[in-house]
Automatic annotation (TrEMBL):
One of its GO terms (molecular function) is NADPH binding. PANTHER family: QUINONE OXIDOREDUCTASE PIG3-RELATED, QUINONE OXIDOREDUCTASE-RELATED. It comes from Deinococcus maricopensis (strain DSM 21211 / LMG 22137 / NRRL B-23946 / LB-34). The keyword NADP applies. This is NADPH:quinone reductase. SMART domains: PKS_ER (SM00829). It holds the Pfam family ADH_N. Coiled coil: none annotated. The keyword NAD does not apply. SUPFAM superfamilies: GroES-like, NAD(P)-binding Rossmann-fold domains. It is an enzyme of class 1 (oxidoreductase). Keywords: NADP, Oxidoreductase.
Length: 328
């Protein structure tokens, strides 16, 4: 018998219930993973609350990505086999001991890539694609990253450096996080005591940032346009602040600037095959040692409520992991 976390009603962390579930059977084009690790994405918190537009209707299992070992394959699956260690974007949620995943969204892991690194599949793909696919980052540019100490932000800081950014500026909420991202190679701005747009203009000699990565939206995006350089690109891929932004188009066309939307979730659904190249590139940067996945905390999968509490408090740095128990 498999076990999983289920959400029967939207609410606080206490609605995350650990319970037995039938072991799923892979259908055509699917594989089944015996999960070893998954991670908590902020989207999981929003889905649990009921405020995320990609969230499922209860009852559902949260989770966007998992690492594990394939223990069964469905009809028509090629190049994947039982016993293979993989990372995947599962169907129907990742917080379980056994999960199903489409073969097209399942990625074999190199022997020298640990589970802990691969378990950040969603943050890795999101950070890498936001910089490359959406922003088309060029070497020598300045990048501004909001929520820079989080799982996505901390990777975006490192990817920007590895991809040739001349300067990376990271917006954080307090001094401990400022020290954390400074060690990753970013110039920190603590937004609780200084205006990030004014400080960015000061740091760039009045020019502004060439690329801004924004997961907050609302006032943050609107303020970000005041420190976006001519020909700059602002990538919006979330609204953790609670509301979308409104835009004045004259602020864009007069200076050849762009606001670009990005969603890993949409690409998974509409163009799943397009993610493979990004996953491979991100894994190669991890293997090279130029990028690492900061781990903030680990919890047993059955204790997902405590993991959600930590992510929701936004006090940690990097990725929060959930260890799945091995079946007896």
């Amino acid at each position: 018998m498999a076990h999983a976390i289920l959400v029967h009603t939207h609410g606080g962390p206490d609605v995350l219930q650990w319970q037995p579930v039938p072991t799923p059977t892979p259908g055509p084009g699917q594989v089944r993973l015996r999960t070893t690790l998954t991670g908590v994405n902020y989207a999981d918190v929003l889905a649990r609350r009921g405020g995320y537009d990609a969230g499922a209707t209860p009852p559902f299992t949260p989770g966007l990505d998992a690492v594990g070992v394939i223990d069964a394959v469905g009809e028509g699956v090629q190049d994947l086999h039982p016993g293979q260690r993989v990372a995947a974007f599962p169907l129907g949620g990742a917080y379980g001991t056994h999960v199903l995943a489409p073969a097209v969204l399942t990625y074999p892991l190199p022997n020298d890539l640990p589970d802990e690194a691969a378990s950040a599949l969603t943050p890795l793909v999101t950070a890498y694609n936001a910089l490359t696919r959406a922003a088309h980052l060029h070497a020598g540019e300045t990048v501004l990253v909001h929520a820079a100490a989080g799982a996505v932000g901390s990777l975006a800081v490192q990817f920007a450096r590895a991809l040739g950014a001349a300067r990376v500026i990271g917006v954080v909420s307090h001094d401990a996080r400022a020290a954390f991202i400074r060690a990753l190679g970013a110039d920190p701005i603590v937004h609780t005591r200084e205006d990030f747009a004014e400080r960015t203009l000061h740091l760039t000699g009045g020019v502004g940032a060439d690329v801004i990565l924004d997961t907050v939206s609302g006032d943050t995006l609107e303020r970000g346009l005041t420190c976006l350089a001519p020909l700059g690109r602002l990538v919006t891929f979330g609204q953790a602040g609670g509301r979308p932004a409104t835009l004045r188009t004259d602020l864009l066309h007069r200076t050849n600037r762009a606001v670009i939307g990005y969603s890993s979730g949409h690409l998974r659904k509409a163009h799943p095959e397009s993610l493979r190249a990004s996953v491979h590139a991100a894994f190669e940067l991890l293997r090279s040692g130029r990028v690492h996945v900061p781990i903030d905390a680990r919890y047993p999968l059955h204790d997902a409520a405590r993991a959600h509490e930590r992510v929701e408090a936004r006090q940690g740095n990097g990725r929060v992991l959930l260890d799945a128990p091995h079946p007896v």
